[in-house]
Structures are given as structure tokens and as C-alpha cells.
Specification:
Layout: H1 11-18, E1 22-31, E2 36-39, E3 45-52, E4 55-59, E5 66-68, E6 73-76, E7 82-85, E8 93-94, H2 95-103, E9 111-114, E10 120-128, H3 135-138, E11 144-147, H4 154-170, H5 175-195, H6 205-210, H7 215-223, H8 231-237, H9 242-253, H10 257-275, H11 280-286, H12 292-303, H13 307-314
Parallel strand pairs: 1-9, 2-8
Antiparallel strand pairs: 1-10, 2-7, 3-6, 3-10, 4-5, 4-7, 6-11
Length: 362
């Protein structure tokens, strides 16, 4: 039995899935003339896509307002209030109240009109995260990501925005689902765009994925986590010496590459123990351990209990729970369990009992 999240390794998809990211379109804003709206902290990750026109955005704690043009997309953190308008010096109307009133009016639906409503159109949405795993994503994102219409990723985003506009205007069956799927793709494109820039991200998976020299090694570890990877193999894949690679990886991720791999294996094990039926002995072998006892010791160091006890305490029920969690990627459902220290820059210790090639030293 093999443990393969994806054939070629896709760390970002793995993390987004574990974080439980789900997107939905929450409303539209039509505005014209002179206008300004203020919003409280959204309480979840929020995105705003500018479909037509231009305006200004100010986020609490960020010095300079951002000018938004047609085709721009912004993503906002959950904890900061913000203002949106044609002129931010104007007295701002409470946007949350306006959208709440629109939601109670069948004639308006999810649309709010400010002023003549003829010059500016924006679509807003939000991203919900798993209450346990969501910190994997939430903690590494900055309070504001602004992807401009002229960015290299803009053509793909423009296509998504065009399709989103068609869906929202058509009123066809399935619009809510299709719009949510388009929003999910838009969300991934925003993160891709941010990774491609010099924008700040935290340590752990995000810091490593941000460094293109480290990505080949990440893809190997995520693509085949059960293989007994050696430091030299991972370094060669990244085109560096072992020492330079190890230092660079730890500086970016907060842990060394083999500790990162150990942590990732533990997360895959945790998912399978909660969601699947693979015997512990087979699970240990699939994750590269020499014996069930070696695997059990490594798991206990991470989660504080033996794998069998963890399974008994956290095993879910229902059809989705009966599917194997070994894939670990976008094809799996999520269960709400504490994943502890998922590749977040914290060490799980040494002496992991993983199978190694005796002729090669990591």
C-alpha cells in the first residue's frame, strides 16, 4: 500500500485541503457617484473582486489606502475593519447594515446599491476554514493581499471573474454551487499570485513553498511521503549541497527537511486513524517505518497517545469517514480532530524509526 497525496506532489493543495478551505460568494455591491462604506472585521477571510469601475480600499492598521481598478482582487484577513468607497474622506455608511437589509429584501437578494449604482460593481465572498486545522492557512496570510489586473496571474483571474459575472447574472439552476466553485479557484489563484511575489508569509509550509529552490524537495516529500528520503536526495533535487540545503530549508520552514517529513507523515497517519480502517501495522509500513512499534513511538511523541488509542477516541462515523485518509489531498473529506504540530515549524524530536538505506547517511 502506497501513501501518495498526489502523483507529482502538490503541497499547496494538501495544505488547503487540510485547512478545510471552502469559498462562497456572499454579495454584490453596485455604486455610483460619491460614496463610502465601512465594514467591521469580517470574522473570516474575505475577498473582493472589482468587476467594473474603480475605488479605494483602506484596511485598519495598513498605512496607505489601495486604489482598486477593474479586474483587481483583494483578500482581507478576518480581524480588521475596512472601508471601501469612491472617496474615503466622505462620511461612511455602515456596509454591514446595508447588506443585512438587502438580505431581508427578496427584491434585492444579495445586491446592495449605493448612489446611482452605475459606475462600480464588486463581488464579495468569504472563505470558511476548518475550526481545528484552519490555522494552518489563517496564521500565514497577511491582513491584505492585493492582486492587480496587470499581474502575471491576471489572465486566469480575469477569466474566472468573467465566468462569475455570467453565473451571477444568469439566475440558472446550480448558480450557487458553480459560483462557489469559481470562488474557490479564484482563492487559489490569489494565493498563487502572492506566493509568486515578495509578499510576506510565515514559517512552516508557507515559508518553504515561498522559496522556489526548495519546492522540488517539497514536491518529492508530499508526493511520496512513505519513501525513505535521504537528505542528499532532497538536496540534489533542489540543486544544492546537503549543508546549504539543510540550512536554507530550516531558515524558511523553521525545521529541518527530515523533521518536516516526519511531521507530514504524522499528519497523514492521524487522518487515516480518524477516517480510515487501515491496520496500524500496515499504516506504519506505508509511512516508511521499520516496525509498528517504531511508528507507535513516533506517533505517541506527536499526539501523546498510541495510534490504537487515538483511533478509538477520534474515529468518525459515516460514509466519508470510511474512506481512506492516506491520500491526504483535495479528494478527502475532513474531520474535526486536533492535528497538533502540522509542519508548522516545530520539531517532533528524533529517533523516528523510519526505514533508512544503511549505505547512505541522511
Amino acid at each position: 500500500m502506497e501513501v501518495r497525496p498526489f502523483a507529482d506532489g502538490d503541497p499547496l493543495s494538501d495544505i488547503l485541503t487540510l485547512a478545510g478551505s471552502r469559498c462562497a460568494v456572499s454579495g454584490r455591491l453596485e455604486a455610483g457617484g460619491n460614496w463610502a462604506l465601512r465594514f467591521p472585521p469580517p470574522g473570516m477571510i474575505k475577498f473582493i473582486a472589482i468587476m467594473t469601475g474603480n475605488g479605494w480600499l483602506a484596511v485598519d492598521g495598513i498605512d496607505e489606502p489601495r486604489h482598486l481598478d477593474t479586474g483587481d482582487v483583494v483578500m482581507l484577513g478576518a480581524e480588521r475593519p475596512f472601508r471601501l468607497g469612491s472617496d474615503l474622506d466622505l462620511p461612511a455608511v455602515d456596509g454591514a447594515v446595508a447588506f443585512a437589509a438587502a438580505a431581508g429584501d427578496p427584491a434585492q437578494g444579495d445586491r446592495v446599491t449605493v448612489g446611482n449604482g452605475a459606475e462600480f460593481l464588486a463581488v464579495g465572498g468569504h472563505v470558511t476554514l476548518d475550526p481545528i486545522r484552519g490555522h494552518l492557512l489563517r496564521d500565514v496570510l497577511p491582513p491584505l493581499i492585493h492582486v492587480r489586473s496587470g499581474a502575471p496571474e491576471a489572465p486566469a483571474m480575469r477569466w474566472l471573474l468573467d465566468q462569475l459575472g455570467v453565473e451571477l447574472a444568469g439566475g440558472r439552476p446550480g448558480t450557487t454551487l458553480v459560483a462557489a466553485q469559481l470562488a474557490q479557484m479564484l482563492f487559489v489563484q490569489i494565493i498563487r499570485a502572492h506566493l509568486a511575489t515578495s509578499g510576506p508569509l510565515g514559517h512552516g509550509w508557507a515559508g518553504a513553498l515561498r522559496d522556489p529552490r526548495l519546492v522540488p524537495a517539497l514536491r518529492l516529500m508530499h508526493g511520496d511521503p512513505g519513501r525513505p528520503w535521504q537528505l542528499g536526495e532532497l538536496a540534489r533535487a533542489s540543486g544544492m549541497s546537503r549543508t546549504v540545503f539543510a540550512v536554507r530549508f530550516k531558515a524558511a520552514a523553521g525545521v529541518g527537511p527530515l523533521t518536516y517529513l516526519l511531521n507530514w507523515r504524522m499528519r497523514l497517519a492521524e487522518r487515516e486513524l480518524c477516517c480510515g480502517t487501515t491496520p496500524v501495522s500496515a499504516l506504519a509500513l506505508s509511512l516508511g517505518y521499520m516496525s509498528e512499534s517504531a511508528f507507535s513511538n513516533a506517533f505517541k511523541r506527536t499526539f501523546g497517545m498510541a495510534p490504537s488509542l487515538y483511533r478509538n477516541r477520534h474515529a468518525a462515523t459515516g460514509p466519508s469517514a470510511r474512506r481512506s485518509g492516506l491520500r491526504g489531498g483535495a479528494h478527502d473529506d475532513l474531520v474535526d480532530v486536533d492535528i497538533g504540530r502540522l509542519v508548522d515549524g516545530k520539531s517532533d524530536g528524533t529517533g523516528d524509526g523510519v526505514r533508512r538505506n544503511p549505505k547512505r547517511v541522511a
